[in-house]
Design brief:
The mean pLDDT is 96. This protein has five helices and nine strands; from the N terminus they run βαββαββββαβαβα. The chain has one domain: Peptidase C15, pyroglutamyl peptidase I-like (Aminopeptidase, 3-Layer(aba) Sandwich). A seven-stranded mixed β-sheet has the order 2-3-1-4-9-5-8, with helices on both faces. It is of the alpha/beta class.
Length: 214
């Protein structure tokens, strides 16, 4: 089995992106699966093309994209991506879409096809704070999650896909406001590793209610 794991390059004035920095720390094999690590651009247009090229080259069984969600306090496994691009700030190529669909022929939304609850559960069992998230935003993280799930649905049946948002790592919050949440890079990497382990071992998700009340 092969798992393609992507992480974004730095954006929004940050010097690093904990997404790819953590991906680089992953072992080369998790639960018997070969791990393929790929840095992708924080760009609406090019990010999906870079991932699709890697899918064609490596033919993975699972694709997991990882992105930074500064301000979140724990690991969050995304449940759904929406067919909408709207950017508060320009991406790394200067693109700043406003209320645009990502794919004219795409569904309104796509659900992750990896076992998100099992991934959250496995992180928690190893002492890592984690939750399901029901919004990946409208920036490039949502865009790459949506585009990858669109591609898997249309062109690569049988390949499963999902997305994990990670908090700031400790070095990023040195000059930020008191109380800004963060995690160590090592804990972020372990969270991703346990998520991948659960995705490899569980084709079907666990039956546990993790819904929100707001």
């Amino acid at each position: 089995m092969k798992v393609l794991v992507t992480g974004f390059d730095p954006f929004g004035g940050e010097k690093i992106n904990p997404a790819f920095e953590a991906v680089k720390l992953l072992p080369d094999t998790i639960a018997g699966a070969q791990i393929i690590k790929l840095e992708i651009p924080t760009v609406f247009t090019r990010s999906a093309d870079v991932v699709e090229k890697a899918i064609k080259e490596h033919q993975p069984d699972i694709v997991i994209d990882v992105g930074q969600a500064g301000g979140r306090s724990c690991m969050t496994v995304e449940k759904v991506a929406i067919n909408l691009a709207e950017a508060r700030i320009p991406d790394n190529d200067g693109e700043q879409p406003l209320d645009e669909p990502l794919r004219a022929d795409g569904e309104t939304a796509y659900f992750a096809t990896v076992p998100v609850k099992a991934m959250v559960e496995n992180m928690r069992e190893h002492g890592i704070p984690a939750h399901i998230s029901y919004t990946a935003g409208t920036y490039v993280c949502n865009a790459v999650m949506y585009n990858v799930l669109y591609l898997l649905d249309k062109k690569y049946p049988g390949v499963r896909g999902g997305f994990i948002h990670v908090p700031f790592e400790s070095g990023q919050v040195v000059d930020k406001a008191n109380g800004t949440p963060f995690m160590s890079l090592e804990m972020i990497a372990k969270g991703i590793e346990y998520s991948i382990e659960a995705a490899v071992k569980n084709e079907a998700d666990v039956k546990e209610n993790m819904g929100e009340t707001h």
